[in-house]
Specification:
alpha/beta, Isopropylmalate Dehydrogenase, two-stranded antiparallel ribbon, binds nicotinamide-adenine-dinucleotide
Length: about 350
């Protein structure tokens, strides 16, 4: 039986609270006769790593992550890092870039017991994760953003056939297992060459999947369509920044940022990482919602289970997911969702519902 090696990075702010909650649920769920072999190793990232190693993402962490099957990553408070780290990629940007985790997969689904602004929605955003309009990711060396004079700034966007083809293929493969429907999001009416290439290459890839129904929208119109008729969409494929923005929107539409899960993946590795940040405004209050990273961890386990054709691991993922959803459905929620549970008592409720 395979032993799954998982790297765990707590990160900053509410990271410690939500990651510890997730590990408690994972441990409680993986008891009994049908145990999956999991080996977890905590690795430094964030302010604690700056204190101990002089860097928010030490080389040692990257070296160890390279040996793991998957990683669970808490949020970083990179906006508050000392000035000397601000010109560098933040820890998650660096990990996505360094390990070429090209697909950021961000589902948004209406959940029973959660009062979202829309109901019955169930879509997944496939966000290209390595280039586009994020100038700290889109260069081999240096940063794709510069000041011509103190009053003139230039930011670049990079679009390559290789990166577009692989995110489009990932999106179409996912569509084949769902409703066979893909929406391409771009801004090709104005950013004709960059996002025009994105759109065109996605349509080229679409020819390999004749069963899939494809349409496309400009990103501004897409924001309006999502608010008005989110239920009409299933798989959305888009570039880095558009995907980042639209996934915050879809997360909020189905109930809130604290619920939104994601994984970052390539063909061989995947990283669970909730959509939210380190939430410095609520750190230490024990009210952080751990559902985002818990469901991200479920996604990671499912991804590993599919990769290794491991039914027991898939069962473990389903068991955790069912328990989280049952807890939410019973109205046992943290204050961001209108409930009275603390991070710890919510976690205890999830553990109770595992049975
Ligand atoms: P944020 O996501 O941390 O917080 C936005 C709002 O949502 C806050 O009011 C916060 O309290 C609330 N919130 C977020 N997660 C929550 C949770 N799990 N439970 C309850 N409420 C939650 O965004 P921000 O304030 O713009 O950024 C704070 C820091 O996080 C910055 O340093 C930013 O760079 C960083 N950040 C990191 C990541 C990441 O690690 N992937 C993502 C986004 C932002």
């Amino acid at each position: 039986m395979k032993t799954y090696q998982l790297g765990v990075m707590h990160g900053d702010g509410i990271g410690r609270e939500v990651i510890e909650a997730t590990l408690a649920v994972l441990e409680a769920a993986n008891q009994g006769r049908e145990q999956v072999k999991l080996k977890l190793e905590t690795l430094p990232m964030g302010f604690s790593a700056i204190d101990r190693y002089g860097h928010p993402l030490p080389e040692e962490t990257k070296e160890k992550l390279a040996q793991k099957d998957g990683w669970i990553m808490g949020p970083h408070d990179s906006a508050a890092y000392p000035e000397r780290f601000k010109a560098e990629r933040n820890p998650s940007g660096e990990l996505r870039h360094y390990f070429d985790l090209f697909a950021n997969i961000r589902p948004a689904k209406s959940l029973k017991g959660i009062n979202g602004l829309v109901n019955e929605a169930d879509l997944i955003i496939y966000r290209e994760n390595t280039e586009g309009y994020y100038p700290d990711r889109n260069m081999y060396s240096g940063v794709g953003e510069w000041m011509v004079t103190p009053d003139v700034a230039v930011s670049s966007g990079v679009f390559t056939r290789k990166a577009i083809e692989r995110i489009a293929r990932a999106a179409f493969e996912a569509a084949m297992k769902r409703k066979k429907q893909v929406t391409i999001v771009h801004k090709a009416n104005v950013i004709r060459l960059g996002t025009g290439l994105f759109k065109d290459v996605c349509y080229e890839v679409a020819k390999e999947y004749p069963e899939v129904e494809v349409n496309d929208f400009h990103v501004d119109a897409m924001a309006a369509h999502l608010v008005k008729r989110m239920n009409d969409f299933d798989i959305i494929v888009t570039e880095n920044m558009f995907g980042d923005i639209l996934s915050d929107l879809t997360g909020e539409l189905v109930g809130g940022l604290g619920l939104s899960p994601a994984i970052n993946a390539n063909e061989s590795q995947a990283m669970a990482q909730a959509v939210h940040g380190s939430a410095p405004d609520i750190v230490g209050q024990e009210i952080a919602n751990p559902v985002g990273i818990m469901l991200s961890t479920v996604m990671l386990l499912e991804w590993l289970a599919n990769k290794h054709q491991d039914k027991m691991l898939l069962n473990l993922a389903k068991k955790i997911e069912t328990s989280i959803l049952t807890t939410l459905e019973k109205g046992e929620t943290t204050p961001d969702l209108g409930g009275t549970k603390s991070t710890q008592t919510f976690t205890e409720a999830v553990i109770k519902h595992l049975d």
